[in-house]
Amino acid sequence: MILEVLTPQKLLYRGHVSHVRMPGIGGSFGVLPNHAPLISALKRGAVEVTQNDAENKTYGEYDGTLLEDDASNTTFSFMLNGGVVEVQKDKVIILAE
After folding, report:
1. Domains in the chain, start-ordered, CATH in brackets?
2. Which of 5, 35, 73, 79 could lock onto 12 through a cystine, CB 3.0 to 4.6 A?
C-alpha cells in the first residue's frame, strides 16, 4: 500500500509500505494492505512504518526528511504532534500537524 505523510508546508514521505502503526485518540492501531476504509484523529505519539522493499527503489523527486532510498524492509518511526489519517483500500494518508 502507499503511505503519504503531509504537513501544511510539504510532502514529508511517499512510499510503498507493508504496515503502519499510529497513535489514534482511542489508542494505537495498525494498518495492513487492503484494510477497511476509515478516518481517525491522531494524537501526539510515534508512527511506526515498515517499508516494502519490493516496491521502493528511488525517490529523487521528493526531498522530505523521512525519505528512505533503496529500502530493504526498513522499519522507521517518527513523532507526530497530532493530525488526521484517512485509510483507503491500498492508500494511507496522514495529515500531520
Report:
1. 2-96 (2.60.15.10)
2. 5
Distance of CA 26 to the CA centre of its chain: 19
User: Per-residue pLDDT tens for 14-48?
Assistant: 888 999 999 999 999 999 999 999 999 999 999 99
Torsion, Cα 17 56 58 60, to 10 degrees, reads -20
Q: How many angstroms separate the CA atoms of 25 and 15, rounded?
A: 25
R_g of the chain, CA atoms, integer Å: 12
Mean pLDDT over all residues of the chain?
Answer: 84
Least Cα distance to 36 among 94, 90, 95, 89 occurs for: 89
